[in-house]
Amino acid sequence: MASEEELFASVDALLEEEPQLPPPAERARLREAAGITQARLAQALKSTTQTVKNWENGRSEPKPPRLEAYQRLLKGWAAKYPAHGAPATPAPVAAPQPEVPDTFTGPAAPDATETETAAPVQAPAVQTAPGRPATSRRPAAKKAVKPATDPRFPHGPLAVLDGDGSAYSTGGIVLDCPATTVVELVEWTLRESGLGAAKLNRYGKDSDPLIVLTAAAAVKLGLPERLEGHEQRRSLRLPEDHPVVKQVAKAKWQLTQRGFGPWARIYRKAQGRDRQCVQLAILSWDALDERSWPGVADMEPADVARVLGVYATRVITPRGSTAVSGLELMTALRPPTKAVQDPATGNWVSGYNAGSLGTEPMDPAPPEATPEHPVVVNSGWEGGFLNEEAYQWVRSVETLSDEECTLPFAVGLDLNTAFLAAAARLVVGLSAPDHFHAPMFNPKIPGSWLADLSHIELDPRLPSPFTPDGTRPTGPAWYQTHTLAYAQELGHDVHPIEAYLRRETGAYLDPWHDRLKNAYVDTLADMGITKDLSDVEFLAAMEQHKQKDPALAAVLSAIKATVKGGVGKLRERPQGKHYKEGETWPALSRPTWRPDIRAAVISKARVNMHRKLNNMVKMTGLYPLAVLSDCVVYPSPGESPLDFLPYAASGKPQPGGFRLGPTPGLAKLEGVQSMLWAVDLMEKGLNPARHIKGGDAVLDEGE
C-alpha cells in the first residue's frame, strides 16, 4: 500500500503538470460560439493569427505564459457555451467577461491576410517581451522608434528563435515556430512568419528576414552548439558533408559562397519579383562580435530581439558583421540600377541609377590600390601609394613646456563618429580615374594628387596634417584632394606633379550619413542625452549611459562600428594564408570596393581634427599630447574638459575648437589620467590616447 508521502508526491506532480486544453476542434468551436475572430483572439493574447490557426488545427500548442491565459479564456467560454446536450453552468448576474491578464494585453501584429483593416504594428520600443526576464533594470524608453507600416511585414524585420520554438520578434511579439529542421525554418519564415523590412530606396530591394538562433535553437535544428577550429569562429564554416548542409541542398535551397557559417544566407533564385531568401545568425557561433555588440550575445532572446530590432529599424537589418551592414547600407540607399524605358521598344529595362556606383567593379588608379592588387602587380607600378590614414601621433617630450608639465591631469576627448561627420556632403568620384600630368590643383575635383609638401614648416607641437603619424613629409607623396586643399587653406602654394582624377562626381555617401546620424542621435535621445543638455549635464549623462541602459548602449556601439566598418570595407584586403600577390580576391568583384572613397573620408576626418587642434591653440594656447584616430589628449588643470575648453564670456562654447555634445563631430570625455602617467608613456614612445580610449585607429577592413 502506498505511503502518505508517495501519495502526496503523486498529487504534487499532477498539480505541477501544464494545464490541459480541450481538443483543437473544441477550441475552434468555443471561439466561434463566442463570436470572436482568430485575429481578435491573437490580439488579446499578443500573438499572431497564424499561431491561433495552428492551435486550432493541432499543428502546435501554446506555451507558458500564453497557455494559462488561453486555458482561462476557454474555460470561461465553455461555461457559457457548453457542447450540445451538456448543461450550461449559470453565471453570476454581474459577472464580467473572462479577462486575459494584463501581461497579455496590448497591440499585436495582424496576420498578413487581414492587414487591410488592422492597425500598423508598433516597431521596437525598448521593452521586454512578456515571459522573459530583462537583462537591464531601467524603465522603458519614452521614445519608440518609428512604427513599421508595411502590411507585408506585420511582425517586423527579424526574430530570435529559442530552443522551445518561441520566436521573439520586435515590439514584444512572440511567434510559435514549429520548425525542427533548417529547411522547415526557412520555409516557415518565408510563408508564415510575416518577417521582413521594406526597401530604403524606391529603386532598391526589400530586406530579407533575419532569424537569429540561440544555442538551444541551433542544437534543436541539428547544428553544433559551437564551431571549433584553429581559426576565429567567425571565419569557420560547416563542412559540405554536414547533414544540415546536405539537407539544404536536397531541398533545392542554396548557400552563398560564405557557406554555412555564423551568418548563413539561404536562398533560391528569385521568381519574377518575389525574392526567396532568409538570413540566419547563430549567437553561439560568435555572429555578434563582442566589440560591436557588447553583451548582446549573453542577453535573453527577447532582449536580443529588442536590440537588433532597434538597429534594424534605424539602420538596416543585419546581414553580417557591422562592417558588412555598413557597406550594405550604402547600396540599399543608393541602388545601382532603376527601371528605365527603352526608347526603341518601349519596354522597361534595368538602367543606371544616377549618383550610384553602378553594377560593375572599377579598377582603382595604381596609387589608390594596395601593393598586392592586380593593377599594381601586373603593371609593375613603383610610383608610391596614397597614405590617407587616421592619426596615430605622439608629441615629442622635448616640446613640453614647464607649465604643461606642472598640470596634474591628462584628459581625453573623443569626437562622436568623426568619420561619419566627415562623410557629410563629401563629393567623391563616380567614374573611372583619368591620368593627368602637371595639372592645376582644383579643390573641387576628387582624386589623388602627387605633390611635394615637405617645404611646409609647421609648429612641432602639433601633428602634421599631411601624414598619419604627424611627421613632416620628406618629399613628393600622393594625397587625396582634401589634404591638398587644407594645405592651401593654411596659406601654402600647391603644385601637383601628376594626378588621377574623376570627371563624374557626386555626394554618394550623403543618404548613408543622414541615416546613420539620425540613428545615432535618436538612440542617444532615447537614453536622455539630447542637444538641449548643458555641458555639465551632458558629461554626467554620458558617464552613466552604459550602466543605465546596456541594451541601447549596445545599439549605440553597433552604430559606431557600422560607420568605421563600412568605411573600412571600401578597401577590404585579401584574407587567408594561401593568397598570393597579384591574384584577385572576392571583395574586388564589388562596385563598392573603392579605396579612393575610403581615402576621401579619412583625409577629411584628419583635416577636420587638425583644424580643431589649430583653433584650440589660437583660442586657449593649449597643445595636445597625443592623437589617436578620433581621440585627442590634452593637459588639463582639472579632471573635466570644462577646465580647458574655450567658452565665451556668455558661457557658451566658442565655435571652431572642440565642443561637447551628442551629435557627430562634437566631443565627449573619453578618459582622465595623471599628467605624469601621460609623460611616462610619451617618453617610451607610446600613445596616451590609445590607453585612455582603449581602442585603435584601424578602420576595420575585414568581415
> N- to C-terminal separation?
68 Å
Give a short account of the largest sheet: 7 strands, mixed
**Rg calculated over all Cα atoms:** 30 Å
How would you sum up the global shape? globular
Describe this entry's structure for a reader:
By secondary structure, the protein is α+β, with helices and mostly antiparallel strands. 31% of the residues lie in helices and 14% in strands. The strands form 5 sheets. A 7-stranded mixed beta sheet has the order 3-2-1-4-7-6-5. The protein has a 5-stranded antiparallel beta sheet with strand order 10-18-19-11-20. The protein has a 4-stranded antiparallel beta sheet with strand order 13-16-14-15. A hairpin with a 6-residue loop joins strand 8 and strand 9. Helix 3 crosses helix 4, helix 9 crosses helix 17 and helix 10 (322-333) packs across helix 17. The longest helix is centred in the last third of the chain and has 26 residues, at 595-620. The protein starts with a helix and ends in a 10-residue tail after the last helix.
Short description:
By secondary structure, this protein is an alpha+beta fold. Helices cover 31% and strands 14% of the residues.
